[in-house]
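The instructor's notes for this session suggest beginning with a concrete chain rather than abstract definitions. Hand out the sequence below and ask the class to guess, before any prediction is shown, which regions might be ordered.
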Amino acid sequence: MAFSDFSIDQMIRTLGVTTREADLFPAVAPLAIPAWLTDILGKRTQLALISEKARSEFIVVPILMASRELSPVPLAIFSGQRLDVDPTRGLVGECDFILATAPPVPPLRSPIITVVEAKKNDIEGGIGQCAAEMVAAQLFNRAEGRGPFPMHGCITTGEVWQFLRLTEAADIVEIDARRYYLDDVGAILAAIQAIIARAVEAA
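After discussion, reveal the predicted structure:
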């Protein structure tokens, strides 16, 4: 069993984690969008973004790169990073993306956000996987002497972004009551910057 095998039911049974709705970013205002990102996203309509790989390359990665550009601290973006933490509970496998408050060089340090690309455009279907990756990332940080502090996650189709937060006790996954859409990418950037600010404050 690996991260990608987790459903919501398996998350509850295997990890002892439950879910609840929450307002994760109640006072966050959209940020100004870098001109280069606006240009890239504007060209996506000229492309046949029918595959997960295409959406990743032309939508998700540019937004993550803009987040790194806007971050007040060094932010590393790890793509396809293995996070093998606890094989007995299935907390192993590759993560689509991990954002970490560390210089952008290996090895993985200080993860704060795990990003899951929704398979078949199914946001709900990615909750179990994202929760498992957040639990693993939180355990990783604790083993490195960081935390405890809430771990964040995000499930995205590229066009739709759903943010999650794992509580410090690692027993509740809070699902943001709001979903973010590509026509308000400034709000997506603001949410990610809010997560970075919280991690910096906790550290």
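Then share the key points. The CA atoms of residues 14 and 48 lie 39 Å apart. Residues 3-202 form a domain with the tt1808, chain A fold (CATH 3.90.1570).
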